[in-house]
Design a protein that fits this description.
The protein contains 15 helices and 13 strands. With 421 residues, it is of the alpha+beta class. A hairpin with a 2-residue loop joins strand 10 and strand 11. The protein is globular. Bound molecules: magnesium ion (MG). Magnesium ion binds next to strand 1.
Length: 421
């Protein structure tokens, strides 16, 4: 039966042991050998390993020492994230030949929505699956597991159910039955916490969850909770997030008290803009490597474009740039406005951050910070130098508030202008 009879056709391609497979392709001597990737050769923790190593019980997160004990021929390989990103890009580009509707889910996983291509590929899901696998293999020599169903969650579960080099097809009308006895925590995105909550309500399998009223999940977890209820029945409503248009730039600027010459105040405004820009980058899973920082004087803008060593969405490297602007480009001129813009932002390559250990710490900190701010309001937590920000008009006051409350209105307008961006 061709995919014409399916209302939606969604495939998930998952590269097998991606980083290890790329290394084996890159160096044929490693083919068929038990290898494990670590962050440089001094790394002690295994990021991923080849299937040959996995056969000995080696797994992600394991210490190299333990891996060598379990698997005598174990070979440690230093991670080469640039190579993995290159191969990943090649794979993702090639999948566009099958359907333009692709969601790059991670460095080694992509959803392919074939619903709009049903007429073009008037064939069986088995043929589609083989086509995807061949496509990936032809451009990368890496094998992948493919799951095909009528929704994202079931397709993902299907892909996971047969590894490596698997192809699992679950027609949409069979999904609910197939999932009935599957533990709900096996579905992507259903973590132990949600599992524990459902267990308290006597629901362990997808079938159990389907029997609960949807409101139990909705009340506890909101819309994501409702989504789980549908996922359990093979009716995940989530769309393949295609054509995510990247913004050309992410910037924030702010008008300053006219003719500000206090270094600390200018610095504080720049840090404030840094926090705003980086938070917005993180919120949209973007990073940037080039930043424009400018200070507006009576005669025009002072400042320039900077390129940092690695794409980032943390404030730390950008604050360093702000310092450079203040110490090298500013010579005491009166400032009227500050501007900070992240140029050419790119999608954050989540898994590649694994290699930047220092960055990971930053990343976790930023994540925690963003979550807290999301819950309690912007700048509940912020760098110490911004703690005065909420009273910024007071800080500014002596310098530019000659007329008492009139300027307070001005402050409100400034805030409005800023928040309207
Ligand atoms: Mg994978």
């Amino acid at each position: 039966m061709t995919i014409k009879t399916w209302s939606r056709v969604i495939a998930l391609a998952d590269m097998n042991a991606f980083f290890a497979s790329v290394e084996q392709v890159d160096n044929p001597d490693l083919m068929g050998k038990p290898i494990g990737i670590t962050n440089s050769l001094t790394g002690t923790c295994i990021i991923t390993s080849s299937y040959e190593a996995r056969a000995f019980g080696v797994c992600t997160g394991m210490r190299v020492k333990e891996a060598k004990r379990l698997c005598p021929g174990f070979i440690q390989i230093a991670a080469n994230p640039v190579l993995y990103a290159k191969v990943s890009t090649r794979i993702m580009d090639s999948l566009q030949d099958i359907s333009p509707d692709i969601e790059i889910f991670s460095v080694d996983e992509a959803f392919i929505d074939l619903t709009r291509c049903k007429k073009v590929w008037d064939t069986t899901p088995e043929v589609i699956g083989m086509m995807i696998k061949q496509k990936v293999f032809s451009v990368s020599k890496v094998k992948c597991s493919v799951g095909i169903s009528g929704d994202k969650s079931t397709a993902k579960w299907a892909a996971k159910s047969m590894k490596p080099d698997g192809l699992t097809i679950i027609p949409p009308w069979e999904a609910a039955t197939k999932l009935r006895d599957v533990a709900v925590t096996e579905l992507c995105g259903v973590n132990i916490g949600i599992g524990a909550f459902l267990a308290k309500h006597g629901a362990f399998t997808c079938g159990d969850v389907a029997r609960l009223p949807i409101s139990i999940l909705g009340q506890r977890f909101g819309n994501p909770g409702k989504r789980i209820w549908y996922m359990c029945q093979g009716k995940d409503p989530d769309k393949v997030q295609t054509n995510i248009k990247l913004p050309k730039s992410v910037g924030h600027g702010k008008v300053m008290p006219p003719n500000t010459t206090a270094k600390d105040t200018i610095y504080m405004y720049l840090i404030h803009m840094t926090e705003k820009v980086t938070q917005r980058l993180r919120k949209n899973s973007l990073t940037a490597q080039c930043f424009y920082i400018g200070l507006k004087t009576k005669h025009g803008w002072l400042g320039r474009k900077f390129k940092i060593a690695f794409p980032s969405n943390s404030s730390k490297p950008i604050i360093e740039l702000c310092k450079i602007v203040i110490y090298r480009y500013w010579h005491g001129e009166g400032i009227y406005q500050v501007q900070l813009t992240a140029l050419d932002p790119r999608e954050e390559k989540g898994q590649i951050d694994l290699f930047e250990y220092d960055d990971t710490k930053d990343h976790q900190l930023n994540k925690a910070l963003d979550n807290i701010n999301k819950r309690y309001g912007e700048f509940t937590l912020a760098p110490a130098n911004l703690l005065n920000r909420s009273v910024m008009p007071n800080v500014i006051a002596p310098a530019w508030r000659p007329h008492g409350h009139r300027q307070t209105i001005q402050d409100v307008n400034l805030e409005k202008r800023e928040s309207g961006k």
